[in-house]
């Protein structure tokens, strides 16, 4: 993937400014930066959840920002999104939630009727097994812990057969142990399946532990792009724009404007409808 001079403005706010980077092969990338730095907007533009103002994103030489209609939905299927708030259907059982990831692989009629075949069930169960929660398959999603729900969301993403996983602060709502399990799962998917995982993270130590590469954003611009191990305290201070009193433990945020939630819900509905 090549991201070239990507920009996003919201009114007078330049959320992402001239972002450019290449992902030459499967990588696990952590995007860090303080609240409002533009991390979510960057991920959302890659997935088409937020339209870019200008720039291009080339995959196999094709600008995915120019895609419309079915081609655009096919791309959204190829880059599965994982959200901080899991975005499961709370009253549906876990297995059905996971199989929803298969819907936009099928034709419209099958998708509308939510008809799952044997292969869908097998794939759903296999994904749950990989995430270590197959025993929860028949429970309602809302009855699971936050960490388990995020693993269900990852299993759903896997059943989409994605080329890439984009995770927007996947552990921000989780306790430390659940966060570790979720990050271990994403790392394992990256290594075993050879998928690129781009993950917005709000703690530096998580990025250092799990990612090979870190992209640091400040005020919409990429101010660091390099190996995770090279993110020293000085580099971090530059990314977070903090003074000498900078404390690594204090980084991003969990605030999420309502309009973004609405966009996520619309995205998932479209996926469910097999649009
Ligand atoms: N839908 C929107 N409408 C208007 N402004 C927005 C919208 N989404 C993001 N912004 C603004 O764009 C800038 C970048 O926001 P973004 O959410 O991408 O940052 P972030 O680094 O992900 O922050 P956080 O860690 O708080 O989620 C901020 O100034 C934010 O207020």
TrEMBL record:
Keyword terms, alphabetized: ATP-binding, Cell membrane, Membrane, Nucleotide-binding, Translocase, Transport
Source species, domain of life: Bacteria
PROSITE patterns (UniProt xref): ABC_TRANSPORTER_1, ABC_TRANSPORTER_2
SMART domains listed in its UniProt record: AAA
Domain spans labelled ABC transporter: 1-244
GO molecular function, one term: ATP binding
Gene Ontology CC: membrane
Pfam families, per the entry: ABC_tran (PF00005)
Protein name: Phosphonate transport system ATP-binding protein
Annotated source species: Roseospira goensis
């Amino acid at each position: 993937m090549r991201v070239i001079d990507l920009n996003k403005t919201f009114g007078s706010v330049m959320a992402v400014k001239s972002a450019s980077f290449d992902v030459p092969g499967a990588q696990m990338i952590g995007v860090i930066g303080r609240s409002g730095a533009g991390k979510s907007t960057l991920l959302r533009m890659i997935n088409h959840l937020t339209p870019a103002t200008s720039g291009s994103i080339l995959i196999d030489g094709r600008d995915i920002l120019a895609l419309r209609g079915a081609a655009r939905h096919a791309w959204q299927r190829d880059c599965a999104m994982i959200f901080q708030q899991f975005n499961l259907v709370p009253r549906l059982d876990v297995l059905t939630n996971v199989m929803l990831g298969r819907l936009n692989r099928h034709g419209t009629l099958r998708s509308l009727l939510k008809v799952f075949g044997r292969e869908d069930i097998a794939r759903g169960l296999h994904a749950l097994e990989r995430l270590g929660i197959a025993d929860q398959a028949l429970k309602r999603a809302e009855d699971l812990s936050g960490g388990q729900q995020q693993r269900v969301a990852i299993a759903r993403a896997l059943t989409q057969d994605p080329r890439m996983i984009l995770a927007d602060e996947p552990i921000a709502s989780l306790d430390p142990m659940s966060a570790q399990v979720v990050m271990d799962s994403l790392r394992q998917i990256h290594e075993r399946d050879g998928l690129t995982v781009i993950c917005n993270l709000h703690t530096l130590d998580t990025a250092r532990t799990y990612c090979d590469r870190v992209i640091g954003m400040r005020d919409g611009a990429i101010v660091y792009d390099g190996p995770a191990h090279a993110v020293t305290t000085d580099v971090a201070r530059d990314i977070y724009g903090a003074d000498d009193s900078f404390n690594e433990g204090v980084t991003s945020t969990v605030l999420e404007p309502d309009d973004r939630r609405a966009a996520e819900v619309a995205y998932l509905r479209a996926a469910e409808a097999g649009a």
